[in-house]
Amino acid sequence: MSWKEVAYNRRGTLTILCAILALSSIWSFISVMRYDAFNADVLDLGVNSSLLYGVFHPDFSSGNLAVNKLIYLLIAPFYNLYPDPRTLLVFQSFWISIGAFPLYKIGKKVLGDEFASVAMSLAYLVYFPLGGVYWFDFHYMALFPTFFLFGIMFLVYERKRYLLLFMFLATLTDLLVPIIMLFMGVCYMLYPSKRKRDPLITRYILVALLFSFAVLVLIALYFGPAYIYNWMNRPFSAGFFSSLSADLPLKAEYFFWLLLPVLFLSFLEIRILLLIIPYVLFVFSYSYHPFYSPMFYQYPALTAPIIFTSAVYGMRKFKKIPSFRRLKAKHLAAAILLINILLASLLSPLGNIATGINDGYNAPNQITVTNQDNALNQMISLIPKGSTVLIQGNMPQLTNGYHWILPYQLNHTDLPQYALSDPYSYYYFDGVHISGNVISNFQSEFQSLLNSGRYHIVDNEYNITLIEKNS
Predict the structure, then answer these.
(1) Cα within 13 Å of Cα(203), Cβ side
(2) Do both 343 and 375 map to the same domain?
(3) 63, 80, 250, 465 — which has fewest CB within 10 A?
(4) What is the pLDDT of residues 22-51, one digit of tens each?
(5) How far is CA 305 from CA 40, 164, 243, 296, in A?
């Protein structure tokens, strides 16, 4: 390799690393600002951070093992060095972005084109469904793409031990991932290969298969027979066919939007694209809208790395089609990058912020810290660590080191020491059906405590109120 080629390759690597650093920093800033503006969610960021906190602080742990996301046991020692939910937000932003590096290395090996590899990796960074994963509060599922891409990279480069390590780690990130990894192993073993397989890699893939199966068995055993029955009986349940037919156009449109940014090249490498089948079946089996929304939620994390990996391989096959032999990989990759930049400007939080448009994610307003937010944060500082606190769904700040409860969990025979209201959040009014038509929401529960005579006001500013139980 000439010095010019070495310099060109280094320039590509430097471009990717700079892009990763830039995007990670931007997303970290956005995520932390949303948190500081009290627009993060207790039921994701709060629950997941308190799960990590509880590993080393058993007094604040539920005592249950989260077998469907065992990766948390490996993250917990690092998180507890600085146990703050913002740590997770920054970590997630960097970890998702780092996935562009193994994708770049895969592209170099498969395509042999530096520019095309860089362009595909940059397209991945601005892929608008991945914008929802960045935007969504910290979730262990969001760790899957980078583990998966590193695993594929080490498979491509035949680094056997690292392949096994990253496939193991990927398997621990979410309930559905062991099934995806089983599909991967089966596809690798059954799909005909033009070159002789390395027998050691084959053995490692078999080990990964067995590990994925063992994780599934552990999950099933932990949750018990009812859990197994529910999943096995799902295709025969009364609601299955109604779920299957519900929102069919939206579900089909969902996969259209996932594949459009790579110009549907993934279909040319069906061996890899088949790995999204578990999620496809999952989407069509349920009528829960977030499962098939290409924006706002974490679920594209389960398909994005598969779609881009298959698109890279599909690009190599596309070049071999006689009618398109003159079309170079770099031209195709450049088109994909431009399409992803355009879609991101219209459909991602970054686009919202860059244009100042509040449609969609409402990002500019979501990251604006107000005087009311500052007052709320000041009142949180008045609540001693270890206290029992009634909180709203927008207060993950009170989930680490506190015994927190939400309105529907309130037990009127064992009242909390503190309660903090934020009437500027929709969580103040949002209700939960607890029996028949009875609705539990924060506003009614907070007023009930305040009017009971058992509490006094500690602080009140901008109609934000902190109350404490009388001694």
Answers:
(1) 5
(2) no
(3) 63
(4) 999 999 999 999 999 999 999 889 999 999
(5) 26, 18, 27, 18
Instruction: Report the C-alpha gap between 406 and 432 in whole angstroms.
Output: 10
Residues 377 and 347 in one domain: no
Single residue among 299, 334, 363 that ends a domain in this structure: 363
Segment (H or E) for 91: helix 85-98
Length of the chain: 471
Instruction: Judge if 324 and 211 occupy the same domain.
Output: yes
Written as one letter, the residue type at 350 is L
Contact of 20 with 101, CB cutoff 8 Å: yes
CB 336 within 8 Å of CB 123: yes
Q: Tell how strand 403-405 and strand 418-421 pair up.
A: unpaired
| pLDDT, tens only, 212-244 | 778 777 777 776 656 655 655 555 555 555 666
11: its two tokens: 């320039």
First-to-last alpha carbon distance for the chain, in angstroms, is: 78
In tens, the pLDDT along 79-138 reads 999 999 999 999 999 999 999 999 999 999 999 999 999 999 999 999 999 999 999 999
Closest CA to 191 of 204, 177, 205: 205
